[in-house]
Amino acid sequence: MDDLLERINNYKTEISDFIAEKAEDTEAFRIKYLGTKGLVKEVMGEMKNVTADKKREFGQIMNEFKLFAEAKYDALKAVTSNNSQAIEAGEDLSLPADQLPLGSRHPISLVRNRIVSIFQRLGFAVAEGPEIEDDWHNFTALNLPENHPARDMQDTFYINQNPDWLLRTHTSSVQVREMEKGKLPIRIICPGRVYRNETISARAHCFFHQVEGLYIAENVSFADLKQTLYFFVQEMFGKEVKIRFRPSYFPFTEPSAEMDISCLICGGPGCNVCKHTGWVEILGCGMAHPNLLDNCGIDSNKYTGFAFGMGVERITMLKYQIKDLRLFSENDVRFLKQFTAAV
Ligand code: DAH
Asked: Whose CA is nearest to atom 8 of ligand 1?
């Protein structure tokens, strides 16, 4: 019985390796394996020598062998009939096949993933929220009540259908949604697409990507914020890069700051990229405003926290020395294919 099994296995290997280029080859395959005097019939004929206790098992093996040969025959037929059409059409089948271009990740995705993974190593979890927001989550809860002048800082797309709806102008709205869940401490980053009604140019677009971060617990201090962002900068841009904080204003943080990094091009003395200051701004940050915590149902006497927000496009442009924001959304493969390497 073992001999028979070995024969079947050998035939199966032969069948797998069989290559047909022309219709004649397929026909030769049919005659050799599936014809009236073919090997499948011959193997089936051995059934009479199989002992009664093994008949059931071998019946199955032979049946499976027959199906195997038939499937291969169908596959060969499909290939050679295509080939003969191609030959009739004068095509040269010995030529190598067309190369299919391989895609690559978009630079914005590469950099966003890198930002996310750096913060994940510090224990931040990713939180996401809707791109169509309501006024409360995008503005009011963030200490930006109606008619607050700081709303002008973010040119907003409103949705006609409902005056309360808008395209989110930042992912701070996701921070609000997480705080409202009431589970503390919170340590999240919020990557996502945001929209602003700006005239499209090399430096502005009507949409871009942000990663915002929020850490709320007991006794969180500005020193924690500084150390967290310093770690991020060193991991993202290199150990030699320095940071500095400048006082700023955001309604949802107090105190607020903008953070600069030492210029990656000149390293300090000044050049065109840093407008001859030696520093480049990369993000906004600050300590969560008590009004924001109270709006979201968090006891501002007990908890403190920090927040920050950065534009992924800006980080990508600095990282790769890209001068025009429009390149990110033009889908020109000559641009996109330059970013296959991990950052
Ligand atoms: N939401 C701000 C913006 O889009 C960026 C920002 C600044 C976010 C400071 C923050 C922050 O969380 O603390 O302009």
From this structure: 309
